[in-house]
Here is the input.
Amino acid sequence: MSDLRDPAPYDALLLLSFGGPEGPDDVVPFLENVTRDRGIPTERLKEVGQHYFLFGGVSPINDQNRALLDALRKDFADHALDLPVYWGNRNWAPYLTDTLREMTEAGHRRVAVLATSAYASYSGCRQYRENLADAIAALEAEGLRPPRVDKLRHYFNHPGFVRPMIEGVLASLAELPEEIRAGAHLAFTTHSVPTAAADTSGPEEEHGEGGAYVRQHLEVARLVAGAVRDETGIEHPWELVYQSRSGAPHIPWLEPDICDHLQTLHDTGAPAAVMVPIGFVSDHMEVLYDLDTEATAKAAELGLPVRRSATVGADPRFAAAVRDLLLERAASERGIDAERCALGTLGASHDLCPVGCCPARNRRPAAAGADSPYA
Ligand SMILES: CC1=C(CCC(=O)O)c2cc3nc(cc4[nH]c(cc5[nH]c(cc1n2)c(C)c5CCC(=O)O)c(CCC(=O)O)c4C)C(CCC(=O)O)=C3C
Ligand SMILES: [Fe+2]
Here is the structure.
């Protein structure tokens, strides 16, 4: 079989995610894992710890990933794709290294990796690749021969990621009282990163200020706003804003913050807003706390009606998109040119991050890129 439904050379899919605590005792060790050598002020860490304690010390991200695993397995089974799906995290159990050890022992030799992060950037891409390299090195040090890992391309502009978000915005708009609906702003929001990290995101010279990170988010915002206009006939004003900033105050990060933006909307007479978390794949803590708790409280204080639209989560169209990305890459690894699904004007992202893509402050080995020691 050498058709576009053939997963060869891949013999497994690895869902690679951030990880999160599953109870109060996990919170501090989890935050220590996340922030090791990252210079985040203690005050910020205490504050973020409180966000988790507010939810019983449980991050929603793990259940979101379990739901996505179920959706992927169902989608694969429904399409006669006989490929096991594993799950490993960068910062909490099931840890990436343990999952990769399990995969090694099960005899897997070539693994496609789906990261739960849709865009370019150090935090959203290279850091995942560094952790893959760390896991491979750890297993090699145990005398094992881990499989080769290939990270599937960025899917920010894949219709299986964008379409569910469009529907989410339409549903949130429909929930707003009719007399304020037409004037509602769309506040597209994503994780802030240091401006220096944004500027160097993606292949050098391919992107302007803000780099691939800002450009890719602006493209998704434009696509969603355009589809909403086509559907409703109403041109909702929109902006790209940021959330979840950490780090020292003197270091510039992408702005404006969602809460400052809500203040501006209020001050300039906007009647309502829909917060659209395009930067996140599922409803994890950044969405539940920073948007649903903090920004929603800010809006209430201002008397500004707001809604928060859905993330893709375990939407079956997203699961189908993952299958599409995997089969597209598999074909390409076999030397066959498969169609690369992408909405808008940026085109399908690269398979292999080029050398120097999304550079780290401290250079470390990263797997699954042109500069990988494990190609
Ligand atoms: C771009 C980006 C994404 C989106 C892409 C992706 O999804 O990967 C993302 C996702 C997430 N970030 C998460 C949690 C945290 N991120 C932190 C810190 C940081 N994130 C950053 C960036 C991003 N982060 C950055 C530049 C820092 C500063 C420190 C550093 O340079 O590394 C900290 C430390 C405390 C704080 O400062 O907030 C925590 C606890 C969780 C899990 C949530 C849950 O438990 O449900 C998820 C999904
Ligand atoms: Fe983060």
In short: Residues 159-308 form a domain with the Rossmann fold fold (CATH 3.40.50.1400). Residues 165 and 305 are 20 Å apart (CA to CA).
